Amino acid sequence: MENVSKRYESPDGIVAALEGVDLSVGAGDFVSMVGPSGGGKTTLLRLIAGLETPSSGTVLVDGEPVTGTGPDRGLVFQDATLFPWRTVAENVRFALEVDDTEPERARHRVEDLLSMVGLADRADSYPDELSGGMRKRVGIARALAPDPDILLLDEPFSDLDVATRETLQADLLEIWNRLGKTIVLVTHTVGEAVRLSDAVAIVRGQPGRIETVVDVDVGRPRRRGADGYGEYVREIRTSIRGDHSTDGIANKLDHRPN
Ligand SMILES: Nc1ncnc2c1ncn2[C@@H]1O[C@H](COP(=O)(O)OP(=O)(O)OP(=O)(O)O)[C@@H](O)[C@H]1O
User: Fold this and answer.
1) How confident is the model at residue 256 (pLDDT cuts 50, 70, 90)?
2) Which of 116, 147, 178 finishes a domain?
3) Do both 158 and 234 map to the same domain?
4) pTM of the prediction?
5) Distance 49 CA to ligand 1 centre (A)
6) Same domain flag for 182 and 212
7) Pairing between strand 30-34 and 13-21?
8) ipTM of this complex > 0.95?
9) Dihedral of CA 217/219/225/227: which sign?
């Protein structure tokens, strides 16, 4: 993203959601965005997805300006809205129907995706027969169906219990390792960002800016007690609050200018 600003027109006037955002995400990287509510994280994701156009500045994917949505970018929203009248397999297949994939290939692809997210035996279930965590898995499988290079996730695990959330986090890492996708995740949970990402972007202010990008230098797999893990979580929380400590990791933060 090069010097991207976004203003929305609303009945109450113009809302400046983002201002002067520069962000670079390397191919295959896992980057999270954290920050206070209303700071513009979802807007950032929607701009990359091509669901919104910047008011100024440029969003580039693989060097090409984004002009709309595309199969190179898969999106998972918080409420992974599935079609209730379609089975699990049919929900995943939907993403391929748009693409006009040949039926036999589509069937195999759906089977592969469902086994990857651990739902091979639920292909014929309907969404309301699934748990919340299972529905999220279907949402992820559906987003992966067109084999996008980039997976964009907007608080995908926020309404799940801790155990399910941790399982899905581990599964997402597994998918990332296996498929080598670039992942951009919006989350309210700093621990989740530190557990999963190569880098954590702190988005805050009104209008929102990327204040800091913290490279997470903790070996994988990461556990809560791992060296440095807790320090990153604490320092990022402090940064989100806007309290710029000069202690600890704050000194090591990678201050990339806007
Ligand atoms: N379609 C829209 N029309 C008008 N204003 C909008 C629209 N979408 C977002 N905004 C405003 O833009 C700002 C940023 O919103 P955004 O949803 O991107 O923030 P966020 O960081 O994702 O928030 P949260 O963490 O609460 O999801 C907010 O002030 C919001 O009210």
Assistant:
1) very low
2) 147
3) yes
4) 0.89
5) 15
6) yes
7) unpaired
8) yes
9) negative
